[in-house]
Amino acid sequence: MRVDRMTAVGVASDATSGTRGDAVDRESPARLAVATDASAEQEFVAFVERSKATLQHVAYLLTGDRHRAEELVQQTYERVWRSWRRARDGDPLVYARTVLANLRIDTWRRTRREVLTGVDQDGFGDVDRRSGEHEARVHARDAVVRALMQLPVRQRRVVVLRHLLDLPESEVATELGMPVGTVKSTASRALARMRQIIELSEGDQS
């Protein structure tokens, strides 16, 4: 997988290299900044190692493709590192999952042309491709994504954060800047609309 320890070090090092110098006085502000950056880099690398499996799984659920998932996770870590001070003050994993979801939502752009192929050449997930189970799961995932793409942006974000990432309603409310009651009502309307879209789609295909 691309997001390994060396990748994490590379992401962090690229962002902090501008503060490092060969001749810096031990007590100077620049010296203290270097020490702080080094500590942050170590924390970030440790976070990557703890979280990469979880984020890879989430990314795969949102893309249906191992390589797309890896790219999405890499982009997520780059964003998280740039806001690492903010991320580590709270729950870095929650922050990273939210960044990942928002990145994925932004790529959909309400387009109906993208479908999830379910291609997984390296065996991501325990699925027997020789059975009809895999095809059924791919079809179901495609139907959900198509329905999501037809929702208004706010409804789409609520559904992804609340139901695909399984974040508590309170965290979704904080992330989207809305009351918990609005999260509940928005999710309810969005899910009802998605069910309607999926039922209509299945009716057209029958």
From TrEMBL:
Residues 1-24 are annotated as: Disordered. GO terms for molecular function: DNA binding; sigma factor activity. The keyword Transmembrane helix does not apply. Keywords: DNA-binding, Sigma factor, Transcription, Transcription regulation. InterPro entries: RNA_pol_sigma-70-like (IPR039425), RNA_pol_sigma-70_dom (IPR014284), RNA_pol_sigma-E_actinobac (IPR014325), RNA_pol_sigma70_r2 (IPR007627), RNA_pol_sigma70_r4_t2 (IPR013249), RNA_pol_sigma_r2 (IPR013325), RNA_pol_sigma_r3/r4-like (IPR013324), WH-like_DNA-bd_sf (IPR036388). It holds the Pfam family Sigma70_r4_2. Residues 142-194 form the RNA polymerase sigma factor 70 region 4 type domain. GO terms for biological process: DNA-templated transcription initiation. Residues 48-113 form the RNA polymerase sigma-70 region domain. PANTHER family: ECF RNA POLYMERASE SIGMA FACTOR SIGM, RNA POLYMERASE ECF-TYPE SIGMA FACTO. Belongs to the sigma-70 factor family. ECF subfamily. This is RNA polymerase sigma-70 factor (Sigma-E family). It comes from Sediminihabitans luteus.
